[in-house]
Write a structure and sequence with these properties.
Structural class: alpha/beta
Domain HTH lacI-type: 55-110
Largest sheet: 6 strands, parallel
Order of helices and strands: HHHHHHEHEHEHEEHEHEHEHEEHEE
Mean pLDDT: 83
Low-confidence stretches: 1-52
Radius of gyration: 30 Å
GO molecular function: DNA-binding transcription factor activity; transcription cis-regulatory region binding
InterPro entries: HTH_LacI (IPR000843), LacI/GalR-like_sensor (IPR046335), Lambda_DNA-bd_dom_sf (IPR010982), Peripla_BP_I (IPR028082)
Strand order of the largest sheet: 2-1-3-4-5-11
Keywords: DNA-binding, Transcription, Transcription regulation
Distance between the termini: 58 Å
CATH architecture of the largest domain: 3-Layer(aba) Sandwich
Shape: elongated
Number of helices: 14
Organism: Cellulomonas pakistanensis
Helix content: 40-55%
Number of domains: 3
Oligomer: single chain
Length: 394
């Protein structure tokens, strides 16, 4: 928001334009002088806002009639050192006076900053780090869960191990959550062994201060394959980041192939096309697939994200191919987008909000030491059939 200079704003309203023309055009300089003099006499000078008084522990202690240490014990949760009646009086005074604990002071006492870093792959194109509906949903749930535990989320794009170390040192992070990285990329970040970290949708071995959150990707791939083969489809495509670097995509592909095999289809019935999980890549891919659909070489497509599936539908539709009459398209995630496009997307739903909440719980457990035995959590998946899938043509 741009703040306008008060003097410029008043002058513009009075003058009405260059040379005093406009609203006051034709009125003489004497009238201008008279008007300005009246404004000067009746206007109240604008004063700078007085600084807000900071309520301290001493103020609360004085109001209750107890020691500063007693107030500190209550504020910092050491209630075993204070009687319930006194704690209640202190808490009432804290609320009445509007006392807010100093973040810097609490950091010194607890040796924790209350800051958690959400680290995502840095982007050279200056685009948003949260480019997918999946990431937005996980981030929203993560932030809300951390906020309930008096922690704050800091978003940062990183590409190297040095970026991670700089973020932790510069901001004094209690821990980090990593999302959107391939397994190889996580290994390349060389996370400090003492740093509490939760990896979302990344495989590989976990260190002593690391935990993992994901969905049942193998089961999700199976659900997708069972749904499409159950509709009679025999020529299938899976599209997504299928270059072998993503354990998530590999698991979904394995489940998809297993379902196709269980339906009696040969391995050649499943084609794999590499694509980024963006709407634009989906549109381009849909345009290219149109000829294969017309030739009968493809009857159903599984996209590894709803945003990619939506793009595929648009590309096919723009090329004159009907969804689902000519080809079925199945997404993954059950993001809000799946219910907003036409036709509404059939999809494999996963609890993205649950991923965020679990990531917060696991990380806070690592930070405090309360969750030392818990190292992994998995959210369930479910098939959501809508309008973009139907029986195989002909």
């Amino acid at each position: 928001m741009v703040a306008l200079d008060d003097g410029a704003r008043v002058g513009g309203a009075v003058g009405g334009g260059a040379g005093g023309e406009g609203v006051l055009g034709g009125v003489g300089a004497a009238h201008d002088d008279l008007f300005n003099a009246k404004v000067a006499r009746t206007s109240t000078p604008i004063r700078e806002a007085a600084p807000v008084d900071t309520v301290t522990l001493k103020d609360v202690a004085r109001a209750v009639g107890v020691s500063v240490m007693t107030v500190s014990n209550v504020v910092n949760g050491r209630l075993d050192r204070v009687s319930p009646a006194t704690a209640a009086r202190v808490e009432a005074a804290v609320a009445d006076l509007g006392y807010v604990p100093s973040a810097a002071a609490r950091t010194l006492v607890a040796r924790r900053s209350g800051l958690v870093g959400l680290l995502l792959p840095g982007r050279a194109d200056a685009a948003s780090l949260l480019g997918s509906p999946h990431d937005v949903a996980v981030t929203g749930a993560l932030e809300a869960a951390l906020r309930r535990h008096d922690h704050h989320l800091m978003l940062r794009g990183v590409t190297t191990a040095a970026d991670v170390r700089d973020s932790v040192r510069r901001w004094g992070l209690d821990g980090v959550v990593l999302m959107g990285f391939t397994d190889a990329a996580v290994a390349g970040l060389d996370l400090p062994t003492t740093l509490p970290a939760v990896l979302v949708d990344a495989g590989g071995p976990a260190g002593p201060t690391q935990a993992r959150v994901g969905s049942d990707d193998l089961g999700g791939g199976r659900l997708a394959g069972k749904h499409l083969t159950g509709l009679g489809h025999r020529r299938l495509v899976l599209c997504g980041p299928a270059d072998g670097t993503s354990g998530v995509v590999e698991a979904r592909l394995a489940g998809f192939r297993a379902a196709a095999s269980a339906a009696g289809l040969p391995a050649s019935a499943v084609r794999v096309l590499d694509a980024r999980t963006t709407y634009g890549d989906g549109v381009a891919l849909g345009s290219r697939l149109a000829a294969d659909v017309r030739a009968g070489a493809v009857t159903a497509v599984l996209a590894t994200a709803d945003v990619l599936a939506a793009g595929v539908v648009r590309g096919l539709t723009d090329a004159g191919v009907r969804v689902p009459d000519d080809v079925s398209v199945l997404g993954y995630d059950d993001a809000e987008l799946a219910r907003q496009v036409t036709p509404r997307l059939s999809t494999v739903g996963q609890d993205t909000g649950g991923k965020g909440r679990l990531a917060a719980e696991l990380l806070l457990g690592l930070v405090t030491g309360d969750g030392a035995g818990v190292r992994a959590a998995t959210v369930p998946v479910a098939l959501v059939a809508r309008e973009s899938t139907g029986p195989a043509p002909g």
